[in-house]
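Self-study notes.
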Amino acid sequence: MSSSPRRTMPPIGWVEPAVAQVMDPDHVWYDPSGHTFHLIARAHTGGTGFACFTKVVENADGTMTMSLEKAPSGQTMLYVPFPGGQLRFHLIYDAKTKLYWLLSSQATDSMRRPDRLAPERFDLPYNERHRMVLHFSKNLVDWCFAGLVAKTESPKEARHYASMDIDGDDLVILSRSGDEHAKSAHEGNLITFHRVKNLRDLMY
């Protein structure tokens, strides 16, 4: 039996979506009736930096219609730029700043040859899980880097698949994590708590 690490690419697809609503009346996707929601899903493509984007409209009879969204040009679109969209992410809207905050995994070497990855590195190059980063956006498409929330020194250890909430002026985070005793970066053995103080000071 081979002892080589798993290096496989599951079928292309969308998984683990978040739900968001456009709140800006100047946004091309704004619905003044409040019945349009957007699903932003992890883009499982083997690449990095994109998410899948669809919209759901609640009809008058209570049913819902799902379709693809359109760019300002009128072109139908499926993918949007989304830092960390290759893995599970967490997205929240802050009404105080009118910004969306995104917590996701940062890829740093997705173009490395798979056969040259360290043995303790989980899966394919895009599947990097030891750097958790924060971004913000006013429109769900253009993202600004806000900072590195947590990282580990070894790619076997993980800080990923986190959830967050705003606590006063701070951001509080729970992360599915792993240390040197974890089976892999995917199979964590810890839950870690993180606090980003004075979240809104990171805006620029």
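Second protein, same conventions, sequence then structure:
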Amino acid sequence: MKALVYGGVGHRSWVEVPEPALKDPEDAIVRVDAVTICGTDLHILKGDVPEVEPGRILGHEAVGTVLEVGASVRDIVVGQRVLISCISACGRCRYCKQGQYGQCLGGGGWVLGHSIDGTQAERVRVPFADHSLHVLPDNVSDDDALMLADILPTSYEVGVLAGRTSPGDTMVVVGAGPIGLAALITARLFSPSRVIMVDPAQSRRASALAAGADHAVAPEEAEALVASLTEGAGADVVVAAVGAPTSFELGTSLVRAGGHVANVGVHGEPATLHLETLWIKDVTITTGLVDTRTTPLLLRLLSEKLLDVSSLCTHRFGLDEMQDAYDVFSRAGDTGALKVALFSPESVA
């Protein structure tokens, strides 16, 4: 089969690799029908995630069809159409029992495309299939379901919920890429009074307004706008959705006393924490890796048409156009790409 293989910093290749095989009785083998690329994959290629070794198949988000299951798999059966979660969970360790699947001690957590081969391939081995696959309703399309593999639960859990978003809040989202837009979409479940999106790219500000943002401004305009809308107090919740020092530091400058800054971005270099101004403001700053504990809820809301993610997928490719898809996704400022979806020939037959 073919897969997208990491070759070290700046190098990737779409090449023939061995077929995956069951290694554990809780595994499943899934044919990849649709897959997407994550900003984290770009961070890996930049060298920001040094734990990923050359030779690793990248990717941690996909929709597929179950081809084979291990002897201990109880709830997943061959032929089912499933969502492959970005987080795998053993279901037994102390963290899994608390719903903190991202911190799994039993061999799960973020493993796909990180410590084991991932989903940007024609087929993939998924560990802990009963806890790591979600059977999809017939009325949820592949490209909509892809948004629930990572960006929707990540933004919802690490951004909206960790930020303690409440009705009437003023929320600022720094970064109008896929994670930022997913934060905007899921924040609407809590009826904030306004959501302000901040991004240097005009195309992404336009996407934010189209997705329902109340305001979308460039970074240099953010402080003045937030001050004018909050009588100088600052935002109740700031979601930092870009893994860059400048974006995180901007976010901490926009929050009110007693407010929350929820960092969602993947950081590959240090960011300055300005305690000289924050220490007196009772500000709560949170970080986190998604647990995907809310995926069943989000999937139900999507199936019941209470979430609309149709604006997030902007470009579609065949699976064998993986290199082209990476080129488009990595130049989002020029191409206007948000999420890209790649489909196997079997899924469109």
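Instructor comment on the second fold: The two ends are 19 Å apart (CA to CA).
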